[in-house]
Amino acid sequence: MDFDFPDDIDEGLEQMLSGEPPHDRWMRLALDEARAAAAEDEVPVGAVVVAAGRIIASAHNQREQLADPTAHAEMIALTQAAAQLGSWRLEGCTLYVTLEPCPMCAGAILQARVPTVVWGAADPKAGAVVSLYRLFEDARLNHRVEHVGGVLAEQCGGILTEFFRGKRA
Ligand SMILES: [Zn+2]
Asked: What's the CA-to-centroid distance between 113 and ligand 1, angstroms?
């Protein structure tokens, strides 16, 4: 199917008609952020936050530039989203991130009460969603996060592999 959608068409409907899996298009934007990180010689991880069908935050890892161990893509995106909404409570938001969140970011996601996280590549060395810990499903915590993993995993992981290969060369 190939035709121009009118500008005011509902985004969900547009997605449905275009046949693209619903999470892919937002993950593509997170991937753009990851590429921006690579261009800045930062470990390429990108994140966006979507609320009511639009982007309210878009960020990439900036640990080197900011000399800040907390400057992961998700942390920056959460701060931006909270500023946009004027609330620390990110109800109704979905966070898209190219790499499985680490314990720090998973903790911040829980603190922000984000209902849904969609992530790309698994992180066997630091992942806190399925790889090392399952923080989003831990019944001892007071919030649960729905999560979908492996979205555009190949592209999301590939950009990291490429980055580290370049570093070693
Ligand atoms: Zn993190």
From this structure: 16
Q: From ligand 1's centre to the CA of 28, what distance in Å?
A: 19
- Of 74, 100, 137, 154, the catalytic one is 74
Is 42 a known active-site residue? Answer: no
> pTM of the full predicted structure?
0.89
Amino acid at 66: L
Q: What is the DSSP string of 99-142?
A: E---HHHHHHHHHTT-SEEEEEE--TTT-TTTTS--GGG-TTSS
Calpha distance 7→18 (Å, rounded): 14
User: Residues with beta carbon < 5 A to ion ligand 1?
Assistant: 72, 102, 104-105
Based on the number of CB atoms within 10 Å of its own CB, is 131 exposed (0-12), middle (13-18) or buried (19 or more)? middle
pLDDT tens digits, the chain, 169 residues: what are they?
444 544 545 555 555 566 778 899 999 999 999 999 999 999 999 999 999 999 999 999 999 999 999 999 999 999 999 999 999 999 999 999 999 999 999 999 999 999 999 999 999 999 999 999 999 999 999 999 999 999 999 999 999 999 999 988 8
What are the residues whose beta carbons fall under 8 Å from the beta carbon of 18, sequence distance 6 or more? 1
